[in-house]
Design goal:
- The chain is α/β, with parallel strands linked by helices and about 500 residues long.
- About 35% of the residues lie in helices and about 20% in strands.
- Strands 7, 8, 9, 10, 11, 14, 15, 16 and 18 form a 9-stranded mixed beta sheet that branches. A 6-stranded mixed beta sheet has the order 1-6-5-2-4-3, sandwiched between helices.
- Helix 12 links the parallel strand 15 and strand 16.
- It is elongated.
- The structure holds ligand BES, manganese (II) ion and zinc ion.
Length: about 500
Amino acid sequence: MELKVQSGDITTWKGDGIVVNLFEGAMSPDGAAGAVDKKLRGLLTRMIKQGEIKGKLGSTTIVHTFDKLPAERVCVVGLGKQTEFTLDRARHAAANGVCALRNAGAKKIASVVHGAGLDHLTLESVAQANAEGILLGLWQFRKYFTSNEEVKTVDQVVLLDRDPAKLKALKEGATRGEIIANATNLARDLTNEPSNVVTPTYLANVAREIAKKYDLDFDVIDRDKAKKLGMGAFLGVAQGSDEPPCIIILRYWGSGKKGAPGLGLVGKAITFDSGGISLKPADGMQDMKGDMAGGAAVLAAMQAIAQLKPAINVTGIVPATENLPSGKAFKPGDILRAMNGKTIEIVSTDAEGRLILADALVYATQTLKLSPVVDAATLTGAMVIALGHHRTGVFCNDKELGELLFKIGEETGEKNWLMPMDPEYAEQIKSDWADIKNSGGRPAGSIIGAMFIKNFVGETKWAHLDIAGSVGGLLGTGKEDGYKNKFGNGTPTRTFVHLALALAAKK
Ligand code: BES
Ligand code: MN
Ligand code: ZN
C-alpha cells in the first residue's frame, strides 16, 4: 500500500473513491464536502436534511457519483461534534473512511485530511494522525488464507489538500505517521503470527534485520551467556522448552554520547505460554501465541525510533522463550535465583512473565544502568478483568513518569490508567521458603505482578505496562474500533515511540 500527500482539488481527482467529512450537527456540508456536494447537485445536503447523514463519530455513508465526479464513489465520514474533535478522532475517521471504501471494493482512494482546517491542532500532528489511522486501519492479517475471495486490499491512498501552502507540513506529519504506523503494524504481524513461526530465534532474526537496516547495535544473550550472568529466573522458565531461548538487545544512540545509558524499553516475549507444569485450560490457550506482544512492541518501537532519530539513547531488551511442560521443565516448589541474587519460590509455573522480566530488568537497571526503564507485558489475566480492553494498567514508582505516560496515552489513543502499588500488597508474595514467591493468589493479581517485578529494578525510575487486555484479542474478545483491530493491535508501540520523543524534547 502506497500513501501519498498531494495538493489538489478532490472534486477532479480520478479513482475508485474519495473521502470527505462532516461534523455532527452541521446542516450543510462545507469545505471539500461542500465542493463535492455542489458537483453532486446537492445530494449530500439532501441526505443530511433527510437525516441519513448525521456526522456521528464513526459513521460512514457511501454514495456513487454517476459520472458527476471523476471518482466512482464518495464516502462521507462522521467526525462527531466539532468542539470534541481530537487527534485520536482524526485517526479513527481516517481509518473509517478508507476501510469503508476498501470494503466496497475501492483500490485507489483519495481522502481529505480530517481536522486540517481546525486552528487548535497543528497541521503536522493532524497529518500524522490521519496517516496513522489509514495505515493502521487498512492493516489485516490474511496471509494464511489461500483463497482471495475474502481478502480486499487497497493499493494507494492519497491525502489531498487544496492549499499548496500546507503541503510541506502535511508531508512532514504524514511521514512521521507512516513510520510509527508501519512499526505498529510490524508489532501486530509478530503478535498474530503463530508460535510455530515466531520462536525466540525468529524474533532475534527480526531484530538483527532491523539493526542492519536502521543502523542499531544488536546483541543477543543466549542460554550459555545467561547462565554465566546468573539469570536463573529466565533460565528456569526456558528449561522446559527445546527452542533455544534468548535475550535480544537493540541499542540506538541518539544523545551524541555513545555508550551513555538512556531510556530502557523491556518487553516480555513468551512466544507460547502453555502455563508449563501449571498447565492452562485448553479453552483459549491458542491466544497464548500472543504472549510475546510486549517484546514485539519493543522491537517495533526501536525500528521507529531509529528512523525518527530523537536526541536520546534508547535500549530495547526482549527476553524471549517458550513456556512449556516437559521432563526438564521447572516445577511448582522449585526455588530459582535471579541475577540480583534474590531467591524465588515457584508457586505457579504459569506466572512466568514476571520471572523472565526479573532478569531482564536487573540487566537493564544494574548492568546497563538504563533510566527510566519501562516494561510492557501481557502479564496477568486479572488485568483484563480490571480494565477490559480499553486501557493499559500502568504501575510506576515515579510520579512524573506516570503522568507523562498517562498524557501520551490520551494523545496516541493507547490509553493508560495509573494503578496502585501500596507496600501492603507485598505481603501476598512473602514466601516460607525463599525471599519471595511468584504468585500471591487471586486478589489484585495485576498489582501483585507489579509488586513482584519491583524487586528487580532497585531505585531506578520505572514503569510497568500490563497490556494483557489493551493489546487486543488475546482472550478472543478484543473489540474492533476504527484503526484498532480486535486481534493483537500493537499496543504499546506508539506509546514507546512517543515516550522517547518526549524525553528527548525535554533535555
Ligand atoms: N500470559 C499470561 C497472562 C494473560 C492471560 C495474558 C490472558 C493475556 C490474556 C500470564 O503468563 C499468566 O498466565 N498469568 C497468570 C498469573 C497467575 C498464575 C498468578 C494469570 O493471569 O492467571
Ligand atoms: Mn503464564
Ligand atoms: Zn504469560
